[in-house]
Specification:
The complex is a heterodimer of chains A (270) and B (283). Chain A has 270 residues and is an alpha/beta fold. Chain A contains eleven helices and ten strands. In chain A, strands 6-7-8-3-9-10 form a six-stranded mixed beta sheet, sandwiched between helices. In chain B, strand 9 (214-219) and strand 10 form a beta hairpin. The longest helix of chain B is centred in the middle third of the chain and has 18 residues, at 177-194. The radius of gyration of chain B is 20 Å and the shape is globular. The chains are: A alpha/beta (270), B alpha/beta (283).
Chain lengths: 270, 283
């Protein structure tokens, strides 16, 4: 679905943001991009939407080279909720904000109406339908940008730091939304520093550092690799650290790290 | 110790809003504490902070009752200029508050605005750079710095004003996990060295519970829980109010309940501390 072939890119300042990145994300995969600030995660995302074009190498989305596709064509396939929602909210009302892209893509008015109601309902924003997006809290704005994107049903959904400003209840809902997208066969890419959020939802984890991909594998494997994560300034999830501490001690049976908490509970049952 | 922040029966309603953003709020924070303020988005945290740094009522109109005292002075009767020297504010995104051509100029900006004499300004900027260990960045342009460095520059600008109370609004949310834990360690060190009081709004509690003295949870404009992090996180209601109870704390609570039939006393454990506790119990 998304393919990076030896992609390099430098910002105008000369800073090399991507350095020979090769990465394949299949349709329906759920991938988390992690790594230190400035590792190139957001630059990578901007290449998928065609906002940036590679200096060398190529990026293919659904088989189409991003250099040969218009941003409009690409955005029909790829919806991105960027880190800072203020960069993508501009309408007078929340309802208008949600309708904008749908009308641009030529959806019929009844469908626009239905999708707007569906999105506002799903993200608990119904009471703000007629309000200005500017009065929303930071967390609510982030939910609105996500609702806008899901409304046009893109094949690929990219979320850049979706948990910033979200409380625990909203994070659970977000995890549920990601599950829903997965079961609908969408390709989901999440850029996040929030390791505790990522661990229970078990994505494929791609670790970036200095514009390169330095690790790639299932969450269970990557999150146990303390050295790899440390080199990319990423912490281990608390429960993985707990699990590994237990396993350093003799006589602990093998359990899957996801079951560490349940196992500890059973071990201590009187 | 004297209270650096006292909120007395505070209620506030924005001009065209049907309900109070903050209701009947009471809070006393002794000098030198690190306090974490948590709660669901839209619970009134930002409004409460605005009543402390004076944006409410000085910039935002609305219905205001009760009082907020910072270092004994009523915020509504203090000028913004006075408040700027008592209360420091670090925004979530440091890009919103650093904009000069060099780090040094940026750190000096607030002092220049107050007309602080040149020599004193020099001394205070140097002190702030030294405290944050960024003296080597003094001549660099802020936009060339990493996010963690920018966060430190912004905090140096805040500390150069020598505030008694510093408010941090989700300071770690844009930082990678290692940079975030370095920032938390920095806050703990500054509290120790300067005795500064910190109020930190944060959803990610796993990093902060180790250094915070107190956790205050808001919901629907009201204070719903208050206590040491352990006391609050062990309460069953915490999660219902949107508090992100750290994963390892949930396990600790589960184990404590299993063992004693109720939440056990003791401090919050780290992942390795919990592993030791489990092992000790098995033996």
């Amino acid at each position: 679905m998304i393919e990076f072939r030896d992609v390099s890119f430098a910002h105008q300042s000369g800073v090399r943001a991507l350095d020979g990145v090769s990465l394949r994300v299949e349709a329906g995969e759920f991938v988390a991009l992690v790594g230190e600030n400035g590792a190139g995660k957001t630059t990578l995302v901007k290449h998928v939407t065609g906002l940036l074009k590679p200096a060398s190498g190529s990026v293919l989305v659904d088989g189409v080279d991003t250099r040969e596709a218009s941003t409009a064509q690409l955005s029909r396939k790829v919806g991105v909720a960027f880190q800072n929602p203020d960069h993508q909210l501009f309408s007078e009302t929340v309802e208008e904000e949600m309708s904008f892209a749908l009308r641009n893509f030529g959806f019929p008015p009844e469908l626009v109406r239905d999708r707007v109601s569906w999105g506002l309902e799903l993200f608990g924003l119904g009471e703000y339908r007629k309000s200005s997006p500017l009065i929303l809290s930071g967390g609510e704005k982030k939910r609105l940008t996500l609702a806008c994107i899901l409304a046009w049903d893109p094949q690929v959904v990219i979320l850049d730091e979706p948990t910033v400003g979200q409380d625990a209840i909203q994070k659970e809902k977000l995890a549920g939304t990601i599950q829903m997208l997965k079961s609908a066969g969408k390709t989901v890419v999440v850029v996040s520093h929030d390791i505790e959020f990522l661990w229970p939802i078990q994505p494929r984890v791609v670790v970036m550092k200095g514009g390169r991909v330095v690790g790639d594998g299932p969450a269970t494997a990557i999150m146990q690799d303390r050295d790899l994560l440390g080199s990319a300034r990423v912490a281990q999830p608390q429960l993985v650290e707990f699990y590994q501490e237990l396993h350093r001690r003799p006589g602990t049976p093998f359990v899957h790290p996801l079951d560490a908490a349940r196992w500890a509970e059973e071990a201590m049952r009187p | 110790m004297a209270d650096i922040l006292k909120v007395e029966g505070l209620s506030f309603r924005y001009p065209d809003s049907p309900k109070n953003a903050v209701s009947d709020f009471e809070l006393s924070i002794p000098e030198g504490e690190i306090v974490v303020l948590a709660g669901p988005s839209g619970c009134g945290k930002s409004t409460l902070l605005r009543t402390v740094n004076g944006l409410i009522p000085h910039m935002y109109g609305g219905e205001y009752s009760g009082d907020v005292l910072v270092a004994g002075s009523s915020v509504k009767r203090s000028s913004m200029r006075d408040l700027a020297q008592t209360v420091g504010f670090l925004f979530q995104n440091p890009e919103n508050q650093i904009f000069m051509f060099s780090v040094e100029r940026d750190v000096a900006f607030g002092l220049e605005n107050l007309g602080v004499p040149r020599e004193e300004m020099r001394a205070r900027v140097d002190e702030a750079l030294r405290l944050l260990r960024i003296g080597d960045l003094a001549q660099r342009a802020p936009h060339e710095l990493s996010d963690g460095q920018k966060q430190r520059v912004a905090l140096a600008g805040v500390l150069a004003m020598r505030p008694k109370l510093v408010i941090l609004d989700e300071p770690t949310s844009l930082l990678d996990p290692k940079t975030a834990s370095e920032l938390v360690a920095l806050v703990a060190r500054l509290r120790k060295e300067l005795g500064t009081t910190f109020v930190v709004v944060e959803h990610r509690l796993d990093l902060l519970v180790g250094v915070a003295d107190r956790l205050v949870v808001m919901d629907g404009g009201r204070k719903v829980l208050e206590g040491t992090p352990r006391d609050v996180l062990f309460r069953d209601e915490a999660e219902a109010h949107g508090v992100a109870v750290p994963a390892v704390t949930k396990v600790q609570k589960l184990l404590a309940e299993r063992e004693t039939g109720r939440a056990a006393a003791g401090r919050l454990l780290t992942p390795s501390g919990l592993a030791s506790a489990v092992e000790g119990r098995q033996a």
